[in-house]
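cron nightly-structures :: item 1 of 1
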Amino acid sequence: MSFFKRIFSSEKKETLDKGLEKTKTTFFSKLTKAITGKSKVDDEVLDHLEEILVSSDVGVETTLKIIQRIEARVANDKYLGTDELNQILREEIAALLAETNSGNDSEFVVPANKKPYVIMVVGVNGVGKTTTIGKLAYQFKKAGLKVVLGASDTFRAAAIDQLQIWADRVQVPIVKQQMGSDPASVAFDTLQSAVAQNADVVIIDTAGRLHNKIGLMNELTKVKKVMQKVLSDAPHDVLLVLDGSTGQNAFEQAKQFTAATEVSCLAVTKLDGTAKGGVVIGISDQFQIPVKYIGVGEGIDDLQVFNKFEFVDSFFK
């Protein structure tokens, strides 16, 4: 199919295929049970399929869209065999994502006229935020760019320590203060340092708390405003990191953070250890915010650029 562009190297595609193995195995074992003894896609099969998609954390809204598309195919073709269901699902999910997510889901591109390019990273504690920052820094450095990290999650000593470990591992400079320091002050110092060093990219970590939306909004707004004293258009991107293994909880976190700040793109992590990989389809569809990266393994190279067609291809392989 023309949908499935070969943009990944074979090695990365293999990692993606492996990373989605648990999701695929669970999904297709349920699907096989649902259509056993059935030769035709009828209302009963569609009811079972709806349950399977929802239980795979695709989300209710996106599931209903997929079911409606398949119902239209059934009505149009008059007869669809269950042996065709896999291919139909693959085509309709790919087509849905192509139509509903028109955002740019490619990797970060650093414009020549925005230097340093500032990425503010948000997300609750434990979703893989610091790891994502470290892997992004590695990718940027590997591309020949000068990167500076900012440890603005000052509410946990562990967050500062973890970011320092990644800075040492990737061998990029980090700006930090003591635990309990003003997060906005750290962000300000980071941008000043990056400008002085003629850095290409700045990645700012932020506190991962969701105790209440007002407190979160105020804190993130303050960090933004202080950064704009150094660079008037900073941050250039706000990346929300979500843990794919939490399923529906990832949807809730996306709702909370998109209400609290202007999220421009998403990264969905930990897909290799879960059967809830369908969450990427639902989040990509419902929030209309580009999913830029997915985490499909522990390795430093296993933060992959998300391409919806390659994802669907691996899901149904």
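cron nightly-structures :: done
The chain has two domains: 10-100, 117-306.
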